Amino acid sequence: MNEERYAYRIRQALNYGLKDIQPAASRRLEAARHLALAKQKQAVPQMALASAGTLSFRMGPYVPYLKQVLAVAALLFGMWISFYWHSVQYVTELQDVDSALLTDDLPPDAFLDNDFFEWLKDDSSEE
């Protein structure tokens, strides 16, 4: 708030002193101002990565949608990695269950059961 008040006072003082400037000096000041504005470099908007700090990601006019394409590609790649990882986890769990069933000791009564042998014959014929 104090800065705005200070700037207002400076502007008032400059405006008050404007009346005392001769027309020739005023024209020279105006010409100098236009020359300075013409030579002033215009700020070119640049895209910058949020985490990169001073590094900038400059894009030319030939690649207008590069960032969007890269973002979609990264998203699809991430989804594929997630699907692949979950499928590997699922297969690993199935392998653990299958190996536990196959290495488990059956009680001797299971081998004496005729229905068990029939189930084994029917189950093996399906494969």
Structure overview:
The chain has 127 residues and is mainly α. It is 70% helix and 0% strand. 0% of the residues are buried.
Termini Cα gap = 84 Å
The strand count comes to 0
Can you tell me the residue ranges where pLDDT is under 50 for at least 5 consecutive residues?
A: none
Calculate Rg over CA atoms. 40 Å
Query: What would the principal axes of the Cα set say about the shape?
Result: rod-shaped
Share of β-strand residues: under 5%
The average pLDDT score comes to 78
Query: What is the overall number of helices?
Result: 5
Series of H and E elements = HHHHH
Q: How would you classify the helix and strand content by structural class?
A: mainly alpha
Amount of helix:
over 70%
Largest sheet: none
Topology:
Elements: H1 2-17, H2 23-39, H3 66-103, H4 108-112, H5 114-126
